[in-house]
Automatic annotation (TrEMBL):
Protein name: (2,3-dihydroxybenzoyl)adenylate synthase
Pathway named in the protein's UniProt entry: Siderophore biosynthesis
Keywords (A to Z) from UniProt: Ligase
Entry-linked InterPro entries: AMP-bd_C, AMP-bd_C_sf, AMP-binding_CS, AMP-dep_synth/lig_dom, ATP-dep_AMP-bd_enzyme, DHB_AMP_lig
One BP annotation, GO: siderophore biosynthetic process
Family note: Belongs to the ATP-dependent AMP-binding enzyme family.
Domain AMP-binding enzyme C-terminal as annotated: residue spans: 445-521
GO MF terms, alphabetically ordered: 2,3-dihydroxybenzoate--[aryl-carrier protein] ligase
AMP-dependent synthetase/ligase domain span: 32-394
Native source species: Pradoshia eiseniae
Amino acid sequence: MLDGFVPWPAERAEFYREAGCWSGLTFGEMLEKRSKEYAHQIAVVGHNGQLTYQELNERVDQLAAGLQRLGIGKEDRVVVQLPNVIEYVEVVFALFKIGALPVFALPSHRYNEISYFCDFTEAKAYIIKDKFTGFDYRELARQVKAELPQLLNVIVCGEEQEFMNLSSLYKEEPFEKVVVQGSDVAFLQLSGGSTGLSKLIPRTHDEYMYTIKRSVECCKVSEDTVFLIVLPVSHNYPMSSPGILGTLYAGGKIVLSLTPSPDEAFPLIEKHGVTMVSLVPPLALHWLDVREKYEEELTSLEVILVGGSKFSAEAAKRIEPSFGCTLQQVFGMAEGLVNYTRLDDPYEKRIYTQGRPMSPYDEIKIVDEEDREVPAGKPGHLLTRGPYTIQGYYKSPEHNAKAFTKDGFYRTGDIVSVDEEGYLTVEGRDKDQINRGGEKIAAEEVENHLLAHSAVHDAAIVAKEDKYLGEKSCAFIILREDYQATKKELKQFLKNRGLATYKIPDDFVFVEHFPMTHLGKVSKKDLRNQLITGVSR
Ligand code: OOB
């Protein structure tokens, strides 16, 4: 078993197997099966070509052979940082087949995150695109590799410079079959994080296959589905709700858009007859606002999924009339639990709630500060346990002791209420995190970077309401006596430290002192209120 993986208690594992949740099917086997069942149907379309199921499986096998030749084997970790390109799908399945574990980095991650992922997971390889949206990932790789000798291979999709070219790894020879079991960890996903850097989330084939199966059922994905991916492929949401893996599971077609811009996405919807797409609220708002300006025919759309952060009811009401398709809200988390509104739910549920758990085996508790269950319908802290919610983060025993209850419930950090029919409404959050339009920022991580600046005495990051993103991040700063720093300097400082772009605060407010709680901690609630009332400005 993978070191640092918190195993499932035997009796619960047994229960989920008996209940038929965990089937033992691995992702490598799933692709193998689909390549026979849907051999000549298109599996994936990218900006530079397309592949049938059979072709995809063949390319995956060839790449699996090349990766093995590099010495990558079972349970080895490989950091994958690719945009929405076909090679991403090939790489991930090739790793699944040889039992190696992709670690899913986002294209917006920079030195700060990538060096940590490579180091913490002792990654054997780092797979990147040469350049994307003006950023050169080879420069980043050079910096990371110089400091981490165990990172043997940097593999580049595109111009490789001194590194290895991904296309050179597709070998016309069989790869060596590896025993991969349903109970094996399939990959490491990233958590949004609330303390320090993202925690890593190990997901087994069993759990994740069940996530996919239930998502496919709840979203009615079939071989006729054409699913457009506009969000970054490696995020849990476009990967599995039902996203890439759900579409392949059902024998449908994936269309990859490099960006979420309507300039690119709308023509793709028209050209490929896209039936489903998943969006985060700011994107949904943007698409709603510009829909009229575009002439493309979008009538093929049947479902727009929206999730990742709270979708306001007012915006939710506009989706169905504007796009002539059904809105499906999704409230999920990389740690596990996923809730969907169902396609045939009454209007009120689709607009005002974030859905209900996708599995009858999901257990939900709504509790107060002392972990006592609150009266039905009242908001409280959401705790959850179930067949696809993890038992612990990778190599994080101390954090796990706080993030999970003794009986294995995950403390989501979300404040929700549950109605009589079991539908959840997200009412707020009790974690030190900013949800910037679906992108999660751990306040503490950014605060720590700011504290490294010579002029900063103290820093506190809080969420500030934003019309489009829902929330933006705002840094309250106390400067050291006799020191000066401007907003521009601090932003540049964070950029130079290699912080992912979305984590750099949108706003800075310089203050003399922070409001305190009775316990003497910084009162972020008061800081948030100051932003609303404008007192500190
Ligand atoms: C998804 O996953 P993560 O891991 O990036 O973030 C999870 C957190 C949740 O705990 C919650 O705080 C927030 O994101 N969230 C929502 C939401 N969906 C996620 N808050 C309010 N309303 C919603 N609809 O974001 C994710 C994973 C799988 C599917 C969809 C989203």
